[in-house]
Amino acid sequence: MTDIDFMNKVEFDGANDELIDQLLSSGNDQERISGFELYYPKVSRNPEIRKVYNLINKVAQSNASVLIQGETGTGKELIAGAIQAMSLRRNQPYITVNCAALHEHLLESELFGHEKGAFTGAINTHIGKFEQADGGTLFLDEIADMHASTQAKILRVLQEQTFNRVGGNKTIHVDVRVMAATNRDLWQEIELGNFRADLFYRLNVVSIHIPPLRERKEDIALLAQYFRKKFAQELKKSPGDFTQETTRLMINHSWPGNIREMRNIIERAVLIVGEKQHIAPKHLAMTGKDYFAAGGRNRRREDIINSELPTLKLETLERQAIVLALQKTNWVQKEAADLLGISPRALNYKINQHKITHPGWRRNAF
Predict the structure, then answer these.
(1) Which of the listed residues 137, 198, 305, 362 has the most CB atoms within 10 Å of its CB?
(2) Could you tell me the sign of the dihedral formed by the alpha carbons of 104, 109, 110, 111, in that order?
(3) What's phi and psi for 172, nearest 5 deg?
(4) What is the percentage of the chain residues whose pLDDT exceeds 70?
(5) Long-range CB contacts for residues 21-29, cutoff 8 Å, separation at least 24
(6) Furthest-apart CA atoms within the chain: distance in Å
(7) Neighbouring C-beta atoms of residue 358, cutoff 10 Å
(8) 15, 114, 125, 353 from 121: Cα distances, Å
């Protein structure tokens, strides 16, 4: 059974551990790696993601241009991949280009190709991405970073399905579906003169907006479980489940890096946690600021316990906790205050009270 066949049998309310296990164990190696990541919207509990997936099902069967918008790390490329995988062009080339990764002239050559001798260093004819994608789909990531001159040529291809290689006169005809993605507000970019309005309208035949993870709290635990099991499988480890405190922290975290951030944090947690050991907040490697912003309360207590303090006298414990926090932050007082969950002013007062000094400090640091 393919991932597409399997996912078509799944109801939204069936998003659970059993479903994740089936996704990770079904299909060939490539499907085990990519299946859930391509089709995770299908098992999302978030109504906006459900709408996105319903739209994907309709869009996939057409040749319409698609514009996918959302914050960094929300999975725009995964959504584009899902559209391609379910489209009529799924057996044809699927070419992706990161428009932010290349200089203007390099991007133009990469997209449209160039003729031999077109510029210094062009020792051979180069076939561009549009030709490579002929009959299939071209995904342009971070399209807002594209230079205006290249935008004009993209517009021509969308309108006429023709272009010329750099340095060439021959008109080349292609049949290419274009999907694009950006993490910027294109209306604002248009008003600033950075993006062509006519290109926006051409790309925006179908618009898909991916909500950030912080607006999809009902999906956080599901995604976290998937990544925990995925990386346990890849690393051949058997970590325990997330503790209740860890789950609560993840649900309350703002996730500025969205799904990409979650993926990285959980991969690290699975890597460092012991066999059969539950994943605790300390394994998430959140900064002190993120930890306390997400409602964490036990980090100071764990640090004190783990430091094997020789006394329970409150004054001594407080002084040693402050010193421990300062040591962990390389004696940067603002970061230590953040780690301790107090204001920099309060920490400065306690440092003076306990007569704590360090050679690298300047007087009146705050």
Answers:
(1) 137
(2) positive
(3) -110, 130
(4) 79
(5) 21/229, 23/226, 24/226, 24/229, 24/230, 24/233, 26/1, 27/1, 27/2, 27/3
(6) 84
(7) 13
(8) 53, 11, 11, 68
Q: In terms of CATH architecture, what is 215-297?
A: Orthogonal Bundle (1.10)
Q: What is the C-alpha to C-alpha distance for residues 20 and 42, in angstroms, rounded to an integer?
A: 12
For 16-66, the pLDDT digits (tens) are 566 666 656 654 444 443 455 555 555 578 888 888 888 888 898 899 999
pLDDT tens digits for range 119-148? 777 778 888 899 999 999 999 999 999 988
Whether CATH 3.90.1300.10 fits 64-78+89-208: no
The helix/strand/coil state of 178 is: strand
Single-letter residue type at 314: L
Instruction: For residue 265, give both structure tokens.
Output: 């944090």
Q: Of all residues in the chain, what percent are helix, strand and coil, respectively (each to 5)?
A: 55, 10, 35
Alpha carbon distances (Å) from 69 to 64, 87, 185, 249, 255? 16, 20, 8, 27, 17
Cα separation, 219 vs 69, whole angstroms: 19
Q: How many residues does the chain have?
A: 366
Domain with CATH 3.40.50.300 in the chain: 64-78+89-208
Q: Are 68 and 186 within 8 A, CB to CB? A: no
**217-235 and 29-39 helices cross at what angle (nearest 10)?**
170
Residues 308-366, CATH architecture: Orthogonal Bundle (1.10)
- Measured between alpha carbons, how far is 150 from 183 in angstroms, rounded to an integer? 19
